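Office hours follow-up: a student asked to see two folded examples consecutively, so here they are.
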Amino acid sequence: MATLLRNIILLSFVFLLSLAATDALAQAEPDTARTVEEDIERALEDFDPDDEDVDPELLTQFLLDLAANPININSASVSELASLPGMNIRHARGVIAYRNTKPFETVDELVEVSGIGPATMERVRPYITVGSRAELTRRLLLSPGFWTQRGRFQYISRGQRVLEQQTGYTDPEFEGQSRYAGNPWRFYQRFNYRSNHISLNLTQLKQPGEPLGGPTDFDFNSWHAGIQDVGIVRRLVIGDYGVWAGQGLVLHTGLGFGKGREVIGAPSRNERGAVPYQSSEQTRFMRGAALTIGRELQFTAFYSNRPLSATVVEGDSIRFPSSTGLHRTPTERARRNNTNLEMYGGRAVWNSDFGIIGATGYFAEYDKYIVPGTGLHNRFDFEGRKASTFGVDYRLFVRSVVLYGEAARSRNGGMGFVGGLEYPIDEFTDIAVVYRNYARDFQSIFGSGFDEAGRFPQNEEGLYVGIARQVTSGLKLSGFFDQFRFPGPRFGTRQPTSGYEMLGLAEYRFSRDLNLYLLARTKIRENDYLIQDEFGRSVNVLGQDARTSVRTQLEYQIARNLRMRTRLEWVRARDRDGDPESGMMLFQDIRWLPIENLTVDMRMAVFETESFTSRIFTFENDLLYVFSNTALFGQGQRAYVLMRYSASRNVDFWLKYAATVYEDRQVIGSGLNESEGNTRSQIGLQMRVTF
């Protein structure tokens, strides 16, 4: 701990020096960009990278695209309005009730809606517009100006890599030894055009270790062409698309927020329907065509046919297709796109004054036979070629109460249900209650319901209660308690288990330029393991994984072009068969705008944990659309600098350098990702051109 104390003193000294220089700083940070960034960090900083149920790139992209293409509050649906950061179903209904009286003439008029105050108005401002009140005519539909209205082209090129040499990129020591086929760079590029009525996109990705023979030889290519809001056609997409339906039990291709600081709204999935896909996540999307028509009563039909990668068991039998999308080694490349999935389905949604009622279903067929794993937890996993799931969902408004839920049934008869309510106890207090029950044999292979286990909604029952209260204009208290159990064995266990998780959060805003929060979180989850009894027999006993973390963060806008953020986090954790251990992390963030069009983010962090068990995750600012939540464990320091320079109105550049120095090891990583030395550093470069 002596090293940790020394580093704390050093960080404090750096902070005092920065305070002394604040008189020379005089550049303002745009309020809109600051609000969008706060929303992204609020949603992502508690994300667990082990949770396959969440796609952070889609979430980041969703918020940034929403800011670039604001929603028209004079025509948006309840679901679209409720999906806005800071808004909920009650706010959305209030907006629609208000505009039924008269259209919004300005964005600022939104504060006249009951329940929407200045704080909500400022948070939602970057994402809304009043649009045009003129009705579209046939002449407009035939006019090029209609299709290109608010059109914007964007090209992004990005490169990232680890700087140290890793084993996978060295020459093999003997013939047949596994090595990566490509270089250590991660290359990404995206061509995108979007207007009020047209969406065109091509996304290309080469992962580290994958080969790239030329500009058309990317391992992953995703494209789409689509139109939206043209007469009765709500949306038509040809190419790659995703489907967000109901509460996610049947179809949900990302944007699952999970449990976190947003204790009221996070458990509820927001309806997005069939939408164009432009992420680089390689598995949770469809490829084909999707059409949505209607207004109050909407119908969606979709068809998909796409290749996937899977491990071959024997002959025509495979494991469930991989979710990694990696094709680096000879083994990975041998199974690239070795199976195919064809599916079709539809959704019907009725929007009314009292709520939303929907029904969703699909049929899917693999061209090879899926064989589940051999573990006890795989006993009820999907097996065969054909899969289907059907469900009904609702979101009802009973005075000030919002009721929502979904019930679904898979082809094998397995059932899943999730239901919840949001209720304002008074003007300052909201409560949310959610119950979920996913049978052991519920097989929703495209689902992503609210749950604890992650990945698929299966083998889980739980009750979640969240409450939030605005105590004063500056103080907000919130928290949740989630009790869950797993009726059958899950990964790593041989028997039913249970657990609980709870979170408490106190946020205090002294002023717009100074705010503080304190967050405490605890999770207890049963796990079993084998021991030897006095007669030498193996006995299965029940233990607990336990993790408690306490975090405090102070953010202060010292000058118009200097923001500081200080965080201290303490963790105490225990594996099921181990002793408790602890860890601590302290970081200092600085955001500085030294000249016009240049933003510099810097961080210095020191950490000390006893092992990986007591690791601490930290969200980092990164290149546009890049998610970074680093796990720190052992003893060391991590620092990064991120620079964004706007060369002109149409061209932006990003550069990030990050390094972690460990004081307790001389080898980092394992297997083909292993590197010699105590330092792991990364570099990232990105360019964006828009017009």
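And the second, which I mentioned at the end of office hours:
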Amino acid sequence: MNGLTMMLIAIVVLGGAYLIYGRYLTKKWGIDPNAKTPAYEMQDGVDYVPADTGVVFGHQFASIAGAGPINGPIQAAIFGWVPVLLWILVGGVFFGAVQDFAAMYASVKNKGRTIGYIIEVYIGKTGKKLFLLFTWLFSILVVAAFADVVAKTFNGFAADGTKILGNGQVSMTSILFIVAAVALGMILKNNKFSTGVNTVIAIGLLVLCIVLGLAVPIYFSTGFWHLFVFIYIAIASIVPVWVLLQPRDYLNSFLLLAMIGASVIGVICFNPQMNLVAFSGWSVNGNTMFPYLFVTIACGAVSGFHALVSSGTASKQIKNEKDMLPVSFGAMLLESMLAVIALIAVGYIATDGAVPADMTQPQIFASAVAVFLEKLHIPASISSTLITLAISAFALTSLDSVARVGRIAFQEFFLDSSIKDEDMSPMLKVLTSKYFSTAITLILAYALAKVGYASIWPLFGSANQLLSALALIACAVYLKKTNRQGFMLWVPMVIMLAVTLTALALTIYGKTTALMTGTSASVAGDALQLSFAIALMILGIIVAIQGFNKLMGKETKEVKIEG
């Protein structure tokens, strides 16, 4: 197998899925292009803000991708390229894209409310509380991990104190992106230019930022960048979406699409050979394919975080219901395409069928694509820096969204629809304040990033995929309660439950054994992992049981809060 053949297979499968399966779901569930969407009905200038299809698509794609579709396939490549490719394509089409579309559809049909509110109305208040608690804990994990990734990418100094030019250029360009995003937000807000004019302005700002960033690098330590990133996401999660979230994601989407487009062209021109074996066995390095493969490759196949973005932020910006298919289903399939490119990259870099142990996943991806692009006469040093910039942009835009999602989950946990704002107690007003909820979320995430997030990073995949299973259950219940067909969600949700509960059970068994036998390399780290694993498993099982009870129930009365 060579890279070009793999690329063509992916394009045919993913493109065909959008044209055939995506339209099939649209027909089965029903789209009303004349309906007034929550972006208009609930417009508040902060979270509910109507945006053009391209802007919302940019937000959705930049937010859901992160570094996941690059890291996951490269890590899972130890099993060979066949199982990785199959899971990306099958998972991306029948698991991930369906979940993202269903989550956004259910949210738009319910006044732009989150999956947590969908669970409250269609499953119960207890289920909602538990799901929001799960979401909040998950958001803390993601913020801690991605913030540290970004800070280390921006770190301007090597261990010996020498300056790292590429990191200095990436950090300066990223700061300029933030400034340019605010400027673009003001332009989009105060002027009614056509989509073409807005695109030209955005691309012009993007190019200017890159040119200046490459010319004027800045150098600060990882500690400084930790503080900078958390201050930035604290602001980004509070200000109106049109100020920073929408325009930044819109800007970054051009960079990310350019990276994917250049990578595709590079693969076509270079046609790299796959130096990975097709299949290396059911168990590799002590990791069994089930559940390790399906937990490791999340973004690119299916990711619970996507459901939070689809229902937490993007659904509040949809101008027309017909935009949901390209924004949710389409963005997921594009992310699967990126995962395939990552697989081709590691397949090319691999030596004697083995993945390099001395390179990080972003380094493997950037190095391989830089080689591919040399066929286009682009210097490897420049292309490698730009690819690293794009990867950091993925992570930073995910931080924007997940910090806001975590803040909203904390607020919703304490909100009760039966209590009016004027009747809230002083304590309840504090707990539901966007400032307090942001502060408590980010303070805990910062402590985790500085002290021991790496100890619980292995739980990220399991928590993310369990979140996907819970979101699928919630959407399946919604579709049943509103007399819509939801059978296409059943197989994905059952499989993801089996995968994640198995992974968590193995983690609990392994950490318990290590702590009891005294073989633990880090008692504090393993105890932390064990605590999180138990909490996540209990929360997930309870919400899943409540959801299945509703799915198996005999109720036929339609529950409807749709606007």
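Two things to take away from it. The two ends are 51 Å apart (CA to CA). The chain has a mean pLDDT of 88.
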